[in-house]
Amino acid sequence: MTSKNPLENPIYFGANADTLQKASELRKNMTNSEKLLWEKIRNKQLNGYKFRRQHTISNFIADFYCHRVKLVIEIDGGYHNNEEQKEYDIGRTVELNELGITVIRFTNSEVENEIEKVIEAIKKYLE
After folding, report:
1. Rounded Cα–Cα distance for residues 26 and 114 (Å)
2. What is the pLDDT of residues 74-85, one digit of tens each?
3. pLDDT tens column, 90-99
4. Domain boundaries of the chain, sorted by first residue
5. Domain spanning 31-126: which CATH class is it, in words?
C-alpha cells in the first residue's frame, strides 16, 4: 500500500511539512512574472512536459519544477542582485545540482518583456 503522505513522495527529495506549507502559501501569492510564465507552461503546454509551481525540493522551494527532466526554473527579482542573495543562490544551485537537478534562471524583466525568448530557452533545454 502506498502512503498518501507527500513527505514520503520522492519528487519532494525529503522536504519537511513546514516547507510544504510555505510552498502552498507561495502558490496563492505568485508574483506577476510567475503568473505570466505559469500561463505559458502549465497543463503540459511545452511539448507535453508537466511543470509544478512553487514546488518543494528538500529544504528549497523552486518557482517551477519539471520532475521528468529534473529541471528547476527560477525567476529572479531585483533582490537577487544583492551579494548575500547571490551567494545563497549559488549554494542553492550547487545543492540542487547534487540531487541531479538543473537550474535555469530568468529575471522578472526577461519574463515580463521577452516571454517568447524565455519560452524558447526553456524549449531548447527540453529538447
Report:
1. 24
2. 998 866 567 777
3. 888 999 999 9
4. 31-126
5. alpha beta
